[in-house]
Specification:
- The protein is an alpha/beta fold.
- It has one domain: Hypothetical Protein Ychn, Chain: A, CATH 3.40.1260.10.
- It is globular and about 40 Å long.
- It has helices at 14-30, 59-67, 76-81, 99-108; strands at 3-9, 36-42, 71-75, 94-96, 112-114.
- It has a 5-stranded parallel β-sheet with strand order 4-3-2-1-5, with helices on both faces.
- The mean pLDDT is 97.
Length: 116
């Protein structure tokens, strides 16, 4: 059985990003990455947190989790609305058409919804 989780963040609040990343790290200590599917969907102002000049001390944990198969999905609509170019983002981010649509799709596919 695979554990499927979608973490959702829509506010530009570093404390919530930190909490979400730590929640995922704790999950992967209990459920091996090969038995899990984890997505972190960011939309709204939260996409600002994944700018190279904003991620700061959290970059290493993002890289670690990405290496364990976690997908960081950023809303294309929110990036456009906030004037963020893809080149300004942390490497490895996946651009999705619409955060809200991705959340619906993942929940329909059986992903548990978590909001830090």
């Amino acid at each position: 059985m695979q554990t499927k989780v979608v973490m959702h963040l829509d506010w530009d609040q570093m404390d919530f990003l930190k909490m979400g990343l730590e929640n995922i790290r704790n999950l992967l200590k209990e459920v091996p990455p090969e038995q899990s599917a984890v997505r972190f969907v960011l939309n709204g102002k939260a996409v600002l947190l994944f700018r190279k000049d904003r991620i700061g001390e959290h970059l290493e944990l993002v890289k670690e989790l990405s290496g364990q198969g976690v997908k960081f999905c950023l809303c294309r609509n929110a990036l456009a609305k906030n004037g963020i170019d893809h080149a300004d983002l942390v490497d490895g981010c996946e651009i999705i058409p619409a955060g809200i649509l991705e959340l619906i799709r993942l929940q329909e596919a059986g992903y548990a919804y978590i909001k830090p």
